[in-house]
What we know:
CATH superfamily of the domain at 278-582: Formate dehydrogenase/DMSO reductase domain
Radius of gyration: 28 Å
Strand order of the largest sheet: 3-2-10-11-12
Structural class: alpha+beta
Largest sheet: 5 strands, antiparallel
Shape: globular
Strand content: 5-15%
Number of helices: 15
CATH topology of the domain at 278-582: Formate dehydrogenase/DMSO reductase fold
Mean pLDDT: 92
CATH class of the domain at 278-582: Mainly Alpha
Distance between the termini: 35 Å
CATH architecture of the domain at 278-582: Up-down Bundle
Low-confidence stretches: none
Amino acid sequence: MFQIRDEERPYAFLADKDNKSHNRYGKAIKLIDENSELYGRSLNINGDPKVSDNPNRYKQHGFHFTADNCIGCHACEAACSEKNDNPAHIAFRSVGYVEGGSYPSYQRINISMACNHCDDPVCLKGCPTRAYTKFAEYGAVLQDPDICFGCGYCTWVCPYNAPQLDPIKGQVSKCNMCVDRLEEGLKPACVSACLGNALNFGVIENIPENREQAKTDIPGLPRTDITHPNIRFQQTRSTHREMTRTDSMPIKYHRNDKTGRFDSTIDDKHGKKREWNWSKLSSRENPLVLFTLITQAVVGAFLLFFMGPSIGLDALQGITGSAIFIPLLGFMLLIETIGLVMSTMHLGKPHRFYRAFNNLKSSPVSREVAGVALFFNSLLGYAFFSLFTGSDYSHITNILMQICGYAALITGPIALYFMHKIYRIQARPFWNHWQVLTAFYGSMLSMGGLLLGITVIPWMAWQGMDFLPLLSTLSVVMFAGLLIEVTGHICHKHDMWKLLKQGHGEGAAAQFEQETKFGKTWWLRNSLLLINILLLALLSAGLFSSTTALIVWGGIALSMLLSAVIGRALFYVLVIPTTMPGAFFWKNRAFQEHARETGLAHREQCGVVYENH
């Protein structure tokens, strides 16, 4: 347990007396009653079986931040990092700020933020390894780094930058509410260290001494309806109508006179010039770019040759009985294996990949992993039993082959559905749109047809077979896939700008960056999509001779691969989360890029490290 110092000051001790029964979200502040089997349980902190006699031990606690008092000294950060022995690149609590006006009427509002131990913690629901637990004791949301395998999904879904992914250790860790101090009646280390008396802590909804407000929002704070965070604010000083961020995010905040809340909107401080920025298309998520595209292509190709003849695509009839069939299955298994290896190596702890199945109840990551695993093994079984179709046991192997085939037929689309659910994140509005589903299923058709075509059509041409009927059929399928994808893109753009009018500017800001920072790259992708749709329509109509059709097909294949990779890379690098504002250096994406480009990242004190996985 935490040892109390002899000279501990009175302000460091918890002092809640009278408490409310429910918080402003309608949830009970008392988390369990005396008859619960959990009552009186030890948290076994450092192996100590002691149980605190704090009368408020089973009530939801939270932070209170008074922005009027914060002087931006970062003592809370230092105290937190010292207590948790954090390296320079990890901070459970950080101080960002927004500013408004100009000299002499300049104003800055500091915001100190850590984990808010929310009523509805999305990190807990999203974590595939079940590394998170919300405890009845103090309402703390605690995370076990030893269980975590470093996928980083909790860092995507959390709106407040609370979980911290350590690229060196390959695991996530976060604020633990200093429960060891709470058990001894002490406030968290960050609160005790605050010089300006800006931070306080206690039972939620209790207004600390000498305070008059307990608001749920402040300029720069992300939406609170996502998780119902247990933090309250005081900000009595009048603010400018517009407050801007000092980090690189193209976001600013404009006061809504009807609600009094500061809505997020676009900040075009970087200009509106269209650029290529090829080098910035690369990100930590590069393995996911290839994994998602490969999986969608393999699922689509399998559905086409397995079900195509049954739905009227007669040109696909001869594939399963041809000499190219076994090599086709082998190639599909090979590239899907490569995709699975890349997605596994993307984890901080790849050797713990099996923990991805731990949270099938609520995590879309666990469900996607299970779906893809079932599809892959069904495809593997289908390929294995297809090797014995001409043997003495063909009547048995044909039955087993069909069972595996129908299993793959069912699990493949389901896996892609759960793959899309991973990105339906409220804290990332650019992703939280049905366009993700159209993009993934559209790619299933277009990339699946492409995979089938680049494998089978060259073989047919080499054998002197008539490949035009197959080419025309695959062109129809690919045309449909691209049309679905383009429809989603058009509606997505429209809805992102629509969100801006509702005060949710992060999605529109991502779209703005897509049209400016990556504007030329984006238009290249769009142009390739439209050209491919036109050419596929011409191929579908059978307007070309065999030689010309083969040449056009080759051009389409290359341009489709290029546009697919560009589009999926943009998907990952553009997303702007509804996250806390950073400072000029700390929690600033532009400074992190600068540090890596100039070599500052080699200096540990800069707090920036290279991404190792």
